[in-house]
Amino acid sequence: MSAALAAGASLLLAGATDHFPTHGDTPRDIIDLSGLPGLRAIEARADHWWLPCLATWSDVIAADLPSQFAGLQAAARQIGGMQIQNRGTMVGNLCNASPAADGIPCLLALDAAVVLSSGRVLPISEFVLGPRRVACAPHEFVLGLRVPHQPAARAAFLKLGARRYLVISIAMVAIVADLQDGRITQARIAVGACSARAERLPALEADLRGQIPSADLVHPHHLAGLTPIDDVRASASYRRHAALELVRRAVAGLV
């Protein structure tokens, strides 16, 4: 398989829910991974959760996962309809690397790492390089994702689109946070659809430590690193405003 991939003659597919609608037929040979055993079951391991490459969005929704995954499961319920959730894979959504991919902010907030077939392990921030670009060599493919245990963490996912379901996001935010005695001890927050790739908000994460969750803690300068664009769905200024409001709601929702 690695040789075929390195030669550029073959394309790996699992769910293919984005590939064919976007690219139509392809002259390249397709290697269908969907029948491989042992690459679908989500499971807890010694120091992390294992999310394998064939796990579908429906698998994520149905899995008995701790509260740290509440945001990812909420995102899964809003990705397409039931047919897409049954067929589409979480790793496929990641490798597609759309700026508006709903799963990627959640994976950033979960501090997930990508495990490649070569043995390389990369954090999500180093794996996703930009629109439709990932740090996967021609001979490699993604085996799955590692998510460190954070069982008591609170998590959320908020998304704005032109309608409730079956829509590409205008802006979205994912948050995973630990609280002790009502105060935030650590938080990871990521915003999607407002830059070439989903981005964490490190300045806000630092300012939230030791604070009681409140929307008033979030200010425009915390989102200064985002680079939203104008397109048919929204203007850049509207995206920035929407992202600020979503982040405020996500932080306040930790209470």
What does this structure look like?
With 255 residues, this protein is an alpha+beta fold. The chain folds into two domains: 116 residues, 2-Layer Sandwich (Uridine Diphospho-n-acetylenolpyruvylglucosamine Reductase, domain 3); 97 residues, CO dehydrogenase flavoprotein, C-terminal domain (Enolase-like, domain 1). 28% of the residues lie in helices and 25% in strands. The protein contains ten helices and 13 strands. The strands form four sheets. A five-stranded antiparallel beta sheet has the order 3-4-9-5-6. Strands 10-11-12-13 form a four-stranded antiparallel beta sheet. The chain is globular, with a radius of gyration of 18 Å.
The rough form would be described as globular
Tell me, rounded to a whole number, the average pLDDT. Answer: 91
Strand order of the largest sheet: 3-4-9-5-6
**Overall strand count:** 13
Short description:
This protein has 255 residues and is α+β, with helices and mostly antiparallel strands. It has helices at 2-6, 19-23, 57-62, 70-77, 82-87, 90-96, 103-109, 124-127, 202-208, 236-252; strands at residues 10-13, 29-32, 43-44, 48-52, 113-116, 121-123, 128-130, 133-134, 142-148, 154-160, 171-180, 183-192, 199-200.
